[in-house]
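seq as requested:
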Amino acid sequence: MVTIRTDLTVREATADDVPALLPMLAEAFSTGTVAEWAVPEPADRLEVFTGYFRYMLALGLRHGRVDTTHDLSGAAIWYRRDETPPPHPDHLYGLEEATGRYTPKFLLLDAMFEARHPRLPHAYLAYVAVAPAVQSRGVGSALLTHAHEALDAENLPAYLEASNPRNRDLYARHGYESGPPMQPTSSGPPFWPMWRGQLNGGVRASFPPPNPYYRRLR
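struct tokens:
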């Protein structure tokens, strides 16, 4: 069951919100098993994730949609995906500039995510973060509910990758179905691809089959 907070207003973020959202995203993502794997040196993590999300926020504002709460305590970066992802010829340069010597780990995650990505039109939740001080207080659910209302009006499916069992269970409460986990390396952290299908007669469509490219990679 999902508890919906009525005291949080969700709106689309603008460039003026970046100074407040950037440290929140960097702090939220610089802890946990994924951060430890991607940036093994603890002293570097916050700086690397600050650079990474400076770049990701710029991409989200330019090519997608960034949602935030009225108090800037959470943010979600969404993209519309067609069957073929749009080319970003400068992505490697931007990622290298943002993450420095840790770029290979981030590229490995990108390749894994892209290989598993469904090849049909959908909305893609690339990132969602909540300020650590207010986590588990319904901020993430408010962001998801706001986006899902618009997606349900179009009956458009949604896709994401959950980075831990706690988040996976939250997304499941919001109607997502989990697929088999994937790992960037044999010792890397697991991620769960998750799909929120179209409604058909009150029932959500099942997770689409893996794309052929992923089957070749395995």
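The radius of gyration is 17 Å.
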